[in-house]
Amino acid sequence: MAVFAQPGSGARFDWGLTGAAELGRVCAALVVVDVLSFTTTVEVAVSRGMRVHPFPWGEQAADYARRVGAVAAVGRRQMTPEHPWSLSPAALRTAPVVSDLVLPSPNGSAISAAASATGLPVVAACLRNARAVGQWLCAEGYGSNDAPVGVVAAGERWPDGSLRPCVEDQLGAASVLDALSGVPGGLSVEAAMALAALASTPDVPAAVRGCVSGRELVESGFAADVEVAVQVDVSDVVPVLRQGYFVAG
């Protein structure tokens, strides 16, 4: 139904792969938010000059990397001194720079890879660059009724594979929507309600550290990844997905 695309607004909000597909039918640009950790890792990699190829989670990522002449990132626990490229933004800050990096993940990367098939500009946003992303979208003319932007919180997964809405992605998406709050088309009700979560959160870094996803990473030994991810508006890098990979917009 057309109503699910939130018509009549310049900035819209939804969750997960299905929400991205719905907004991708009608929006002029999409923003994907996966704070812990895909889009944060993309920001780190692109800021270091790497081109990042999104890819759904799975063993085929290595085959794809070989086909395109890239290095395939591995899971955090599969990192070795010889292969330090992974979904860990903290590790990627010090890993050797490669020209092309295939970065698979089950949420943000899978959504980005699927969205690239629409031909729309797809932007990777996180807490580190949320304001810069909003400013870039406004400067490019997105946010009107004729050129709406869809902001998609990737979410996490329950063990059965279903979507688990999560605090960190809602706050990351809300931070982008905050920077879009003055667009001529206004915010959809869904976007405005997402933004309200940011207004009621006085300490965003503390909320992300204390939420389920943040605590899961800390307890698994990846507290450094959380600390990279909770840095708010420290970057002006806007990774834009065109021709199959993210580069600085």
Quick structural overview:
With 249 residues, the protein is α/β, with parallel strands linked by helices. The protein has helices spanning 16-24, 38-47, 60-68, 89-92, 108-116, 130-139, 167-179, 189-199, 204-210, 212-219, 223-229; strands at 11-15, 29-33, 51-56, 71-72, 100-105, 122-125, 149-153, 156-157, 163-164, 239-242, 245-248. 52% of the residues are buried.
Describe this structure in words.
The chain is an alpha/beta fold and about 250 residues long. It contains 11 helices and 11 strands. The strands form 3 sheets. Strands 1-7-2-6-10-11 form a 6-stranded mixed beta sheet, sandwiched between helices. A hairpin with a 2-residue loop joins strand 10 and strand 11. The model has no long low-confidence stretch (mean pLDDT about 95).
Amino-to-carboxy terminus distance:
33 Å
Order of helices and strands: EHEHEHEHEHEHEEEHHHHHEE
Q: Cα-atom Rg, whole angstroms?
A: 17 Å
List the uncertain runs.
Answer: none
